[in-house]
Specification:
alpha/beta, Rossmann fold, 2 domains, seven-stranded parallel sheet, six-stranded antiparallel sheet, 9 helices, globular, CobW/HypB/UreG nucleotide-binding domain-containing protein, P-loop_NTPase, Zinc-reg_GTPase_activator
Length: 333
């Protein structure tokens, strides 16, 4: 009699994405965080992304991190995305406790979060936190770049206020109110607090069982580690039927919970079978006109949901109510 193969036991480690506008203080926070990890006897691999001076900043972090991989002359959210993923894959082979990734000041975190969601089975980092470093002096006064700075905050699980001493006390309350309105899920943090949170996660974590029949690892697997984990930024990919009606797609997008801050669906419509359509929802707004995409077998008909506190199994059940029982979450390759 042939025995079923034992399910794979996979050790997880946290990943921390550090985002924030140019000059907000990301590298300063990274140095502080590395220093605060020392009393907890934790080591970190660092990926440092910048347009030109990644190698210069990397020099300032020598002897503070276990490994440092500069990613220069590219933007991690577009041209440097593949390089970033390759570096993250390589980091899985080290013995360090956590992966820290500093993004360049104009990086949009959304493409990164989408990619890590699609590659969740390949990149086994959990929890994935995003720290939004906010320059208290200039937040909301970037002119043309205000929207980008808001995006960097809206996707964050935590935020850090830099240069707060330079802001009059009368304006601090207004700043906190603005942040809370833009992202009510994010927790305020500092380097020492985040280091303690990471230490707690690592100390109580255990290998995750991954099997071929598992639909998706539980989104609540780490809840016992404390309230801060309730803000973990999560995402999931859902495989959809090969052809759908327009009304099904728009109804599904409109009924997604508010915690889904970004959703995409690549589908073939029964009404227009000659091409595929890419539907998007940002916040509560569905893009009025889907993007036309050529028919291809490279990417299956599927949807992606990203946001804080998402339960993949709840999203799966919600999708089945709109698209039928054949909807599923991809299994391990």
């Amino acid at each position: 009699m042939l025995l079923e193969p034992l399910p794979e036991l996979v050790s997880m480690r946290p990943m921390v994405l550090i985002s924030g506008f140019l000059g907000a203080g990301k590298t300063t926070f990274l140095r502080d965080l590395l220093q605060q990890l020392v009393p907890h006897q934790l080591t970190a691999d660092v990926i440092l992304n910048d347009y030109e001076n990644a190698n210069l900043d990397a020099e300032t972090l020598q002897e503070k991190a276990a490994t440092i991989a500069p990613l220069a002359s590219s933007c991690a959210c577009c041209s440097g995305l593949k390089d970033l993923v390759d570096l993250a894959v390589a980091a899985q082979t080290t013995r360090s406790d956590v992966l820290l990734v500093e993004l360049n000041g104009t990086a949009d975190p959304i493409p990164l979060l989408e990619s890590f969601t699609l590659l969740e089975r390949k990149l086994r980092f959990r929890p994935r936190w995003q720290i939004g470093v906010i320059d208290a002096r200039h937040f909301g006064n970037r002119g043309y770049y205000d929207e980008l700075e808001v995006q960097q905050l809206q996707t964050a699980s935590h935020f850090l206020l830099s240069h707060l001493d330079s802001v009059p006390k009368s304006k601090r309350k207004e700043l906190f109110t603005q942040i809370q309105k833009l992202n009510p899920y994010a927790s305020r943090t500092i380097a020492s607090r985040l280091a303690a949170n990471l230490a707690g996660v690592i100390a109580t974590s255990s290998p995750v069982v991954v099997s071929k029949t598992e639909e998706h690892p539980s989104a609540h697997a780490h809840h016992q580690h404390g309230h801060h984990l309730s803000h973990t930024f999560t995402g999931c990919q859902i495989l959809l039927p090969p052809r759908l009606r327009l009304k099904q797609v728009t109804s599904w997008l409109a009924s997604l919970p508010e915690s889904v801050i970004r959703a995409k669906a690549l589908v073939t419509l029964i009404e227009e079978p000659g091409c595929r359509k890419l539907f998007e929802r940002v916040g509560l707004d569905t893009m009025p006109k889907p993007l036309e995409v050529p028919i291809s077998d490279r990417v299956p008909t599927s949807a992606i949901c990203i946001g804080p506190q998402l339960d993949p199994n709840e999203l799966l059940e919600h999708a089945r109510q709109h698209f039928g029982p054949s909807v599923k979450i991809p299994e391990d390759e």
